[in-house]
From TrEMBL:
Coiled coil: none annotated. InterPro entries: GTP-bd, Mito_lipid_metab_GTPase, NOA1/YqeH-like_C, P-loop_NTPase. It comes from Arachis hypogaea. This is Uncharacterized protein. SUPFAM superfamilies: P-loop containing nucleoside triphosphate hydrolases.
Amino acid sequence: MLLARKLSPSKLKPLFYLSLLPECRNLAHSNLSSVLVAHSKFQIQNCPKFLPQPTISLIRFFSSQPGDSALKQNLPISREGNYDEGTSPSVVCPGCGVYMQDSNPKHPGYFIKPSEKDLNYKLFNNLEPVAEEPEFSNSVKRGIVIEPEKLNDDDANLIKKPEKPVVCARCHSLRHYGKVKDPTVENLLPDFDFDYTVGRKLASTSGTRSVVLMVVDAVDFDGSFPRKVAKLLSKTIEDHSAAWKQGKSGNVPRVVLVVTKIDLLPSSLSPTTLEYWIRQRAREGGINKITSLHMVSSLRDWGLKNLVDDIVALAGPRGNVWAVGAQNAGKSTLINSIGKYVGGNITHLTEAPVPGTTLGILRVEGVLPRQAKLFDTPGLLHPHQITTRLTREEQKLVNMGKELKPRTYRVKVGHSIHIAGLMRLDIEETSLDTIYVTVWASPYLPLHMGKIENAPKIFQDHFGCQLQPPIGEKRVQELGNWVRREFHVSGNSWGSSSVDIAASGLGWFAIGLKGDAVLSAWTYEGVDVILRNSLLPYRSHTFEVAGFTVSKIVSQSDRVLNKSHQRSDKKAKGVDSKAPLSSDLDSSMLTSN
């Protein structure tokens, strides 16, 4: 006997949707695909178990990107971003510029579109029903006060908040957690070819006007200064100027040097002195002609008005503005600050205190007027910076995030000074009894002064432990061998520093002397160490003592631990644990011989 069974239309829906699944591959851009995405997710999850479960990539539940995921998998990973007008912004992460994909979470650019919520989600969720308020209860019963009804779809769309842009998983992790979730993905990123993507546009003698924002870090000027870009620009300017003088088309790029993070320099530093020093270092770095120079602070909005006015004037109605600089020089932060200052409706670029935040070229809309365009480019990798060799945790210790404070030593011949386990300065010869050495670096880096003859023992016993970074003895071996650089220095004043010995990405030793000296700088092989005129001629009014000068973060944790131990001991002996301790009167920096 056969039994007839009625199937309701709602039970037939899953079968209908499944019959259309094979067509979704070829209809990724069609209205039918969008309809399926909007309505089929719940139904398919409730299909009978005997039916084959469709793969997610067929309907693309979590993707708003046009095109098929299978096709995107075959595309090479690119860092050219969306500088081209033909590239749709929807396929590029608005936070870092990498091409987005939703097929492989282990590859760069992976993203998940937030799930759709009911249109009435969180609508009036913070409001109590009027009927429950005693002063309105009678009025409601009489019909005088009308309760707000649940909005339909059309009404809810009228008050719907603007949708937040979808960013890649890497940007999401950097924005919310300040770190990269999967560091192994970083190794899959190809190097950014500046010469191919941007250099060829600047080298063109025709086309739109080009303005280059060369962004440099004030506290790591020589380490973050893009020397290759400077030489390329100098050659381009020279060639185009010669062509223009001969009556040919010569689109000469305008170079705007932007020095960021000046709020980290001591406020007593004269702007005139700083500008002279910057121009001198820029010429030695390879850039001969600078259209304008701006010293800014994105954090405090210093200098943004003059910078914006200058950019708008130089770019004109159709110009292209390219922001270039080393990793973590502050380009994205600067552009975000400019967008906030001008009140433009721009997508917030990803910022993080780690190098290499921007991965591809980003066309930033809403900042420049008319048809002028602003582009943020990926940070240039400078292998000579010591930060490129450090882990994320080590970079946090090296990063200079607050106004620099001097730490000064009065050093005799035959002594050395360590900056953590990253650099050492030896005073080998001098015509004087002593010289002044001031350390300008992150306050979280411990220092040590001792005899040169004890330096090998310090390296063996304390690197990776008391002298961090590197963090851990294993990291000491991973960073490689130390190499020596010899410097002959001279000065004519005891009251101020004359020269600096700077390590890229770390900081510098400022040398104050009235006479001559022979110094040696030790650091890891490949790290750039230079001799330059002193940036900050000041020194501390109090001198550091021999031995270990514990970093600020370590001294604070040590004091807390010591207080806890002392209170525990006194409590065990029956002494009031709330009595003041001698350690409460300790200074903020601990030292030990």
